[in-house]
Automatic annotation (TrEMBL):
The gene is fdhA. It comes from Parathalassolituus penaei. Its EC number is 1.2.1.46. Residues 197-265 form the Alcohol dehydrogenase-like C-terminal domain. This is Formaldehyde dehydrogenase, glutathione-independent. PROSITE patterns: ADH_ZINC. One of its GO terms (molecular function) is formaldehyde dehydrogenase (NAD+) activity. Its cofactor is Zn(2+). Keywords: Metal-binding, NAD, Oxidoreductase, Zinc. Residues 35-153 form the Alcohol dehydrogenase-like N-terminal domain.
Length: 397
C-alpha cells in the first residue's frame, strides 16, 4: 500500500493548494479506530459550502484539508467492521454519524451528538465540524463505517455511473431533502432559489417528486440556461421587476406551493441592487411568495460566524427577517444539514434504474486533483458546472 497522499488544502482567503498530506490511519486521537475504513478516493466533489470557506467567509483555519463529498473504494478495514470488505465501492455521507446516540437512532444523522465536541453534527474537511480530515485527497479515513457507508451493489456498474453516483454524498440528497421539507409532491408548483449545483439538484429532485412546475431563480444566465436544459422555468433576478409579477407570467398566480432556499447566507439583493449583499433576502422572498400554509425548505447554508458579513449582526448570524409575515401565513421552516442516510439508498436506486439524470442536470465536469485550484476559481466565478475531482484517473480511464 502506498504511504503517500495528497490533498486540497485551504491556505487562506481566496487560496487553495494541492499539497502532500499524511496518509490516513485507523486512529481517533490516541486510540484505534477499529470501526473505520481507509478509502482510495474515486471521486470527490467541490461544493458551494467549500467556497464559503475559501472566500474567507468563515473562521476556517489555514491548513484545513478540504472536501466532504467522497466516493471511494475500501482498501483497509478496521477490526470491528463486519459488513463491508476490501474492494467495496461506497458512497460516503458528508455527515459523520456514530449510529449510537439519540439523534442517530432517530435518523437525525446531521446532528450526531458524539462526533464533534463543539456542537451537534460533523463533516469531513469543514470548519467547526469536528476537525475531521477532508476527502479532496487521494486517500481518506472514514469512521463508523458499517453505519455510515452506502455500498454500491456492483463495482463495474458503479464506475459506469460514477458521474451520477458521486452526487449521493451530498448535493443530490441535500436538494431532495430541501424539496421534501418544502412539501413538494405530485402537482406542486415549486420555486428554487439559486441555480448552483444544489439548486439544480433540488430542481431535478422536485421533478422526481412529481412537481407540475419548477421555477429556478438566479442572477447568472448560464446557470439558468442549465436549469432550462432539463425542463425548468427560470427567472433572472438581475432583471428589474417584482418576483410576484414574474411568477404570475409563468403560473397565472403570484405564489407557489413550495419554496426551497439553495442560496444561503451570501445572498444578494435583486434587480438593480444585485451587487449589494443582503443575507436575509431569500428568506424574506420565501415568505412573500409561498402560499399561506406552505412549507419552506432551507438547505442553503447559514452560519453562526461570518467575518465578512455586511454588518455586525450578520457577522453572528442575526438576520433581519420579516418573520411576522411567515407567522401570519402559517409557514413551516425546515433548516439544517441534510441527513444523507435518510435518502441516499433510494436515490441510488433512482440513478441505477435511470429515473434521474443528475450528472446531466448539474453539468458535472471531471477534473484531476492538480486541477482543483482552477476548479475552485472557475466555480467561484459562477461557472454552470459541478466540478468532480478524479484523484486516481479512475473516471477518465
Amino acid at each position: 500500500m502506498s504511504a503517500t497522499n495528497r490533498g486540497v488544502v485551504y491556505k487562506g482567503p481566496g487560496e487553495v493548494a494541492v499539497e502532500s498530506i499524511a496518509f490516513p490511519e485507523l486512529t481517533l486521537g490516541n486510540r484505534k479506530c477499529d470501526h473505520g475504513v481507509i478509502l482510495k478516493v474515486i471521486t470527490t466533489n467541490i461544493c458551494g459550502s467549500d467556497q464559503h470557506m475559501v472566500r474567507g467567509r468563515t473562521t476556517a483555519p489555514s491548513g484545513l484539508v478540504l472536501g466532504h463529498e467522497i466516493t471511494g473504494q475500501i482498501i483497509e478495514c478496521g477490526r470491528d467492521v463486519e459488513f463491508l470488505k476490501v474492494g467495496d465501492f461506497v458512497s460516503v455521507p458528508f455527515n459523520i454519524a456514530c449510529g449510537r446516540c439519540r439523534n442517530c437512532k432517530e435518523g437525525k444523522t446531521g446532528i450526531c451528538l458524539n462526533v464533534n465536541p463543539a456542537r451537534p453534527g460533523a463533516a469531513y474537511g469543514y470548519v467547526d465540524m469536528g476537525g475531521w480530515v477532508g476527502g479532496q485527497a487521494e486517500y481518506v479515513m472514514v469512521p463508523y463505517a458499517d453505519f455510515n457507508l452506502l455500498k454500491f451493489p456492483d463495482a463495474d456498474q458503479a464506475l459506469e455511473k460514477i458521474r451520477d453516483l458521486t452526487l449521493l454524498s451530498d448535493i443530490l440528497p441535500t436538494g431532495f431533502h430541501g424539496c421534501v421539507t418544502a412539501g413538494v409532491g405530485p402537482g406542486s408548483t415549486v420555486y428554487i432559489a439559486g441555480a448552483g449545483p444544489v439548486g439544480l439538484a433540488a430542481a431535478a429532485s422536485a421533478q422526481l417528486l412529481g412537481a407540475a412546475c419548477v421555477i429556478v431563480g438566479d442572477m447568472i444566465q448560464s446557470r439558468l440556461d442549465q436549469a432550462r436544459s432539463f425542463g425548468c422555468e427560470t427567472i433572472n433576478l438581475k432583471e428589474d421587476g417584482d418576483i410576484e409579477d414574474k411568477l404570475e407570467q409563468i403560473l397565472g398566480e403570484r405564489e407557489v406551493d413550495c419554496f426551497v432556499d439553495c442560496v444561503g447566507f451570501e445572498a444578494h439583493a435583486c434587480g438593480c441592487n444585485s451587487h449589494v449583499e443582503a443575507p436575509a433576502t431569500v428568506l424574506n422572498s420565501a415568505m412573500s411568495i409561498t402560499r399561506a400554509g406552505g412549507q419552506i425548505g432551507i438547505p442553503g447554508l447559514y452560519v453562526t460566524e461570518d467575518p465578512g458579513a455586511v454588518d455586525d449582526a450578520a457577522k453572528k448570524g442575526a438576520l433581519s427577517m420579516r418573520f411576522g409575515l411567515g407567522w401570519a401565513k402559517s409557514h413551516s421552516f425546515h433548516t439544517g444539514q441534510c441527513p444523507v442516510m435518510k435518502y441516499h439508498r433510494q436515490l441510488m436506486q433512482a440513478i441505477l434504474f435511470n429515473k434521474i439524470k443528475i450528472a446531466d442536470a448539474v453539468n458535472v465536469q471531471v477534473i484531476s486533483l492538480d486541477e482543483a485550484p482552477q476548479g475552485y476559481a472557475d466555480f467561484d466565478g459562477g461557472a454552470a458546472k459541478k466540478f468532480v475531482i478524479d484523484p486516481h484517473s479512475a473516471v477518465t480511464a
